[in-house]
Amino acid sequence: MADEREILTYDLFGTAVRDLAQQVVDDGYEPDLVLAIARGGLGLAMGLGYALDVKNLSAVNVEFYTGVDQRLDVPIMLPPTPAAVDLSGLKVLIADDVADSGRTLESVLAFCADHVAEARSAVVYEKPQSVVKPDYAWRRTTRWINFPWSTQPPLVTRSTVVDA
Fold first, then answer.
1. What is the largest CA-CA distance in the chain?
2. How far apart, in whole angstroms, are the C-alpha atoms of residue 124 and residue 141?
3. MF terms per GO, please (predicted)?
């Protein structure tokens, strides 16, 4: 059924965070920093930070999706971006809500590549068409995902302009 969706509740999100953190622990990876891809990865990064006892958190804001199955031609990293010197030599765990096309994750991994000792990625959902296979994924799906924080419309409408 084309309208069938993956439904993530806040309770399931809590389970996903702990399960992902356990995957990281079982893998023996000990990140120095958790880097959230905003906005979708912010909650996951916070939860992973607590579960993995990592207090060093940062965020990078990447604009790509503009609506349900609507996206820009390429992901755009919006300022401010973390300073490369702040990432130098660190083991980084990149957190995002979904690797759909994988292009957002790909752009953040490329950003980190020349600056960090090692970067791995954790997502709540991975889709089969993703150009990047995340190191850690809670679930795999082909369906559109209803996240609990984006199911309802915003309470206000703001005009947004992305300068490229």
1. 49
2. 10
3. glycosyltransferase activity
Q: What fold, for 5-146?
A: Rossmann fold (3.40.50)
Cβ atoms < 10 Å from Cβ of 84 = 12
Q: Which residue has the tokens 């990149």?
A: 94
Indicate the SS3 state at residue 67: strand
DSSP 97-111: EEESSSHHHHHHHHH
Using alpha carbons only, how large is the chain's radius of gyration in Å?
15
- Per-residue pLDDT, 128: 97
Both tokens of 145, joined, read 């995902």
Q: Taking Cα atoms as reference points, which of 94, 95, 124, 100 lies closest to residue 12? A: 124
Torsion, Cα of 66, 69, 73, 77 (10° steps): 50
Q: What is the pLDDT of residue 91?
A: 97
Q: List Cβ neighbours of 7 (8 Å cut-off, separation of 6 or more).
A: 145, 146
